[in-house]
Amino acid sequence: ATADIGVTGLAVMGRNLARNLARHGHAVAIHNRSPEKTRALVSDHGYEGTFVASESMADFVTSLKRPRAVIVMVKAGQPTDAVIDELIPLLEPGDIVVDCGNAHFLDTRRREETLREHGLHFVGTGVSGGEEGALRGPSIMPGGSAESYQKLGPIFESIAAQVDGVPCCIHVGPDGAGHFVKMVHNGIEYADMQLIAEAYDLLRSGLDATPGQIADIFREWNRGSLESFLIEITADVLAHVDGRTGRPFVDVVLDQAEQKGTGRWTVQSALDLGVPITGIAEATFARSLSGHAEQREAARAVFPVTNELAWAADDREGFIEDVRKALYASKVVAYAQGFDMIKAGSEEYGWNVDRGATATIWRGGCIIRARFLDRIREAYDDDPELPTLLASPYFVKAVSDGVESWRRVVADSARAGVPTPAFSSSLAYFDGLRRGRLPAALIQGLRDNFGAHTYRRVDSEGAFHTLWGSDKTESAAR
Ligand code: 6PG
After folding, report:
1. Where residue 308 falls among pLDDT bands split at 50, 70, 90?
2. What is the DSSP letter of 169?
3. Which of 37, 86, 112, 189 is catalytic?
4. Is residue 304 over pLDDT 90?
5. pLDDT of residue 478 exceeding 80
6. pTM score > 0.95 for this model?
7. What's one Pfam family here (predicted)?
8. Is 101 in the pocket of ligand 1 (CB under 6 A)?
9. Distance, CA 204 to ligand 1 centroid (Å)?
């Protein structure tokens, strides 16, 4: 046995991870169900490092030094279970199975439990950064046992993206913690993209600008506090001209956003955990709405478009700055909600996830990498128990500076008929948190009226019920 770590499943992500490992001096055992992919990897990239190729799973396992570490890089769901079932009888106690796919954290918890019964470690690992990231340095979010991290940590940290000399990889927490945090990363990714899309839509309508002009605005924004991978590639996509028609690329792409499910999972778990991640939810629903072509057509037929155009033409610069500030403030809300979600998951499952460290490993490699994650890290370093990111001094100032712009943009968009579900719901969330008294009191009154569901009072302990149907006296409920 000569290999330090193995990868089974050599589609593009698996192949790139294997190459990244080899390039960093790790001897990598490689295996794929159909051996052509294994052979192609050796012939195309064998010179990059040490690959130990096997055509059978048994040989692949034998080629690994103990404790063996096997990265499974196949499709989430049933294919992952099938590979794990094949591996279990071939492995020995202390060996480690790593799932680097986008698995649901509850599947990861289940698998971890099963493998633990066999004396094996199961490490659900979030890997972000797409194909390029896998090859050149992803952000890596491993869960599983602390013991497994002793072997995996140094290997993963060597292949992860590095920011200021710090690797974008930590041991996130036990069992499903890594996949949970990756799921929330993807939820934030949905919100981030929806906010960018709304900003684009507003600029396009409000200024009657071309995609090329808007690309320049995003390029400019990428030099300031909004600097991030997604803003950078937004400029590239908007500037792109379709080769076939000569039209802006965004105008020839069908406007129906697809999804593979991690955003939906985030929202589903948020409902279970009771965390109002409204930005991520609106972003997910906006994708769904875009796909309902028939309903969109029906609505357009009866409510002809009367959208205002170029309403901001008189104060171009002022409007662009308003949209920039609204985007930044809404983005802070989306991240605040995402980090609340991590806290809630961590408490529910006893993971003890460090939010500041999580912000640190999202600074590079991953899709949501952004300059402002440094600010988030600082906020949690200063106060690990911060009740909401919005209350940290840096973000208090940032949001306060932007709030008037944010309100103008949301009001303008409503007036003009440009949908901004993520901008608007983020502002409503912000106002909801800071409002002294919420109308939730009335909801409690209604619940008690129709169903004797009881309410609590501001002035005394306990639950109460009013006899709505008779003399309206109040009694203490047990
Ligand atoms: C990443 C990405 C990746 C995800 C895509 C597509 O972190 O590298 O999050 O894991 O698969 O973003 O997701 P959707 O198809 O759901 O948009």
Report:
1. confident
2. B
3. 189
4. no
5. no
6. yes
7. 6PGD
8. no
9. 26
pLDDT at 385 over 80: yes
* 189 is a catalytic site residue: yes
The residue-averaged pLDDT of 178-202 equals: 98
Testing ligand 1's pocket by substitution, the residue of 102, 132, 186, 368 carrying the most ligand atoms inside 8 A of its CB is 186
Of the residues 37, 131, 151, 182, only one is catalytic, namely 182
Q: What is the DSSP string of 44-79?
A: HHGGGS-EEE-SSHHHHHHTBPSSPEEEE-S-TTHH
ipTM of this complex prediction, to 2 decimal places: 0.96
d(CA 478, CA 476): 7
pLDDT digits (tens, 9 = 90+) for 323-378: 999 999 999 999 999 999 999 999 999 999 999 999 999 999 999 999 899 999 99
> Is 147 a catalytic site residue?
no
Measured by CA distance, the residue closest to atom 9 of ligand 1 is 186
Q: Which helix (H) or strand (E) holds 140?
A: strand 139-142
Long-range contacts of 370-373 (CB under 8 A, 24+ apart): 370/226, 370/227, 370/228, 370/229, 370/230, 371/225, 371/226, 371/227, 371/228, 372/225, 372/226, 372/227, 372/228, 372/331, 372/332, 372/335
Ligand 1 binding pocket mutation candidate from 182, 260, 285 (most atoms within 8 A of CB): 260
d(CA 449, CA 469) in angstroms, rounded, equals 8
Q: Taking the alpha carbons of 321, 325, 326, 331 in that order, is the dihedral positive or negative?
A: positive
| Closest to 101 in 3D by CA, of 226, 262, 243 | 262
Is it the case that residue 307 has pLDDT exceeding 80? no
CA-based R_g, the chain, Å: 25
